[in-house]
Amino acid sequence: MDERFHALAEQLLLIERELRVLGMWSATPPTEEALASCEPFCVDTLAFEEWLQWIFLPRMKVILENDEALPAASGILVMAELIYRDRQPSARGLLESLGAFDQLICGGE
Question: Which CATH number characterizes residue 77's domain?
Answer without folding.
Answer: 1.20.1440.40
